[in-house]
Write a structure and sequence with these properties.
Two copies of one chain form a homodimer. Chain A is of the alpha/beta class and 336 residues long. Chain A is 42% helix and 15% strand. Chain A contains twelve helices and twelve strands. The N and C termini of chain A lie far apart (78 Å). The first copy, chain A, binds a DNA duplex (30 and 30 nucleotides) through helix 2 and helix 4.
DNA sequence: ACGATTGTCCAAAACGTTTTGGGAGTCAAG
DNA sequence: CTTGACTCCCAAAACGTTTTGGACAATCGT
């Protein structure tokens, strides 16, 4: 309701002094400072955000782009993560705006709009591709950003990611140790880093074990994609006895496929993401998930440090992946 | 990179003319307009958002508060809804910021910060209480807002809500028609409008059928709350044969309780929200959900119209609730 | 030929802050 | 009495737009 001018007038002080008093400068006497603060409290003065932003040349905003294509938006903890991130950012005076990508526009367009319009101080990118044009753009503009997921960019950039390679390698080796020899992989679109990373992990384990790597089918990272990919693998002359799936959603699709072929309930399966749904499928879906608590806060912290100018190399977090032991990964292994 | 001044200078025009040319005023000749537009395109000029906001006295932002307490954040479609809302708002030049409530602060504090700091043009409120201090505050400030859920506020305000009363009444009558006589209700915290509304629906149906309304237990709107409430009802001397639950999450908790008492699998149950999880429980959870597509767009539209000054009475949407017929609501009815 | 109208353009003000670069006044030291 | 340091305060500039209220020619109606 009140602006600085009115507040200053009512106090018989200059705008400058009031402003500095509120900011706690030593420049203004303690008694004046207190007087100003009380008056400000009384009228409920809050600086006009737009004015401050203009003057300080900071938008006080961070944007996160929400991919619309394919498969909704990440796991359901995603909103919790965003919420945690926003909460942490708020303590530094930054707000988080969500920027969904309308159809007909690319994520790059969104970045351009936000960056060139000086609407944000930094950006949060999710669902990185191996070669990600958003990353290249932001790097060329010199805007701080953090990605959820790595890229193959030559220039390093801040990220938080799960070690999909190690996780999927370990899961595959676990199947091998349990006696499986025909271990299939249901892969996500390989242009996404996470999908490629996880596929590489499976492949590496297979090669280490001296097994063929032809039991691999790719699909959209959705229930339907997993379903179709699973059917494809089940048509092979030599069926897999275990399936390592790039995502839980795909794994759930695969479970549906398994139910439709006979003997399918004999096939072990594991997914990744730890969807709450997985606890209720039959059999309950074993899965994997990135370790680490308060991921949202981590993202926020990296963003703030990136804005603060810390070099990208120091702003990279690779988290281990842990196995969530339910039931679907240990179907009895039929004699070959 | 470029601001209006530089662009004007390079064109040999005044700032005024360039600004108006870009805004398409008839004030500037077609040829000049084109010349300006081309130059702007070439250097990738975008008006500085903070400057425009200050000058136009509009924040170009809408905030949505994300409740942290209890039970995460609404149904999982919630993020989809936000995404749709943000997308629609973006076409009007507004961005959506998410404002989680840090512990130690109330949602009212958040509203205050956003409103008094002129950070937003409007607000989106979710999880309304029957007597909601946020609503009262925003009304007193005259800030446009839309709620997800009604309140008992005397002054009307824009909202979108599902008709929980009708939905729960209908569900209860459905059980009655199927022969049930001891129909219990697992209620959410009654200070929330939705919980109270649904409870009233159940109660109304029971009274219409001439049945006692004592089979009602309240709990937190979480799995655990539903579990405990269900146990409470199962301890009654005369057990319910059917349960109408305020939310799916509570219903899933109730299912767990039913599994733990013998004969529990004979009890019919229905929830509300249509959680994806519900499709995988055993038995698959029958549920209810608000009808209507593109809810996010509806919210955005109401917000824009509220900002435009339309009276609240014309900005209220009450959606019917539809029954989602899975399996859990028709357990065989034992002879009484 | 004259005022009125129209078509282009612009200088300056305004939005509400933060920050720069001092200006008084006081006090102590020289 | 001057000088410098220190304390407390302030006027004015700056941030980059949009908008107000014309200015100046050219065209039109009579």
């Amino acid at each position: 309701m009140a602006n600085l001018k009115q507040l200053a007038q009512s106090l018989g002080l200059s705008i400058t002094t009031v402003s500095r008093a509120l900011d706690g400068y030593a420049d203004v006497s303690a008694v004046t400072r207190e007087r100003v603060r009380e008056a400000a409290d009384k009228v409920g003065y809050r600086p006009n955000a737009s004015a401050r932003r203009l003057r300080k040349q900071r938008a006080e905003l961070v944007a996160v782009t929400l991919p619309s294509d394919p498969g909704h938006i990440g796991p359901p903890h995603f909103l919790d993560m965003l919420s945690g991130c926003a909460e942490h950012l708020a303590t530094a005076g930054l707000n988080l705006v969500i920027a969904p990508v309308p159809r007909g526009e690319s994520e790059l367009d969104i970045c351009r709009r936000f960056v060139d319009g000086r609407r944000v101080d930094a950006m949060l990118l999710v669902r990185t591709k191996r070669k990600d044009e958003r990353v290249e753009f932001l790097q060329s503009r010199g805007i701080p950003f953090v990605t959820n997921g790595r890229t193959e960019s030559l220039m390093p950039h801040p990220y938080i990611d799960g070690d999909g390679f190690a996780g999927f390698r370990a899961a595959t080796l676990r199947f091998h140790a349990a006696g499986h020899r025909r271990i299939g992989h249901i892969a996500g679109p390989q242009e996404y880093y996470f999908a490629h990373d996880r596929c590489r992990g499976w492949r590496a384990a297979m090669e280490e074990c001296g097994l063929a790597t032809d039991l691999c089918a790719e699909g959209a990272p959705l229930e339907q994609g997993g379903y179709l990919a699973a059917l494809e693998l089940l048509r092979q002359p030599s069926r897999p006895t275990a399936l390592v799936c790039a995502t839980d959603e795909m794994a759930i699709g695969a479970l549906r496929a398994l139910r439709e072929v006979d003997g399918g309930n004999q096939i072990s399966i594991v997914g990744h993401d730890d969807l709450p749904m997985g606890a209720f499928t039959s059999p309950p879906l074993s899965t994997m998930r990135m370790t680490g608590e308060h991921l949202g806060a981590s993202f926020a912290s990296l963003l703030l440090r990136a804005i603060g100018g810390e070099p990208a190399e120091e702003l990279q977090e690779l988290h281990a992946i842990e196995f969530v032991d339910r039931d679907s990964h240990r179907r009895p292994l039929r004699a070959a």
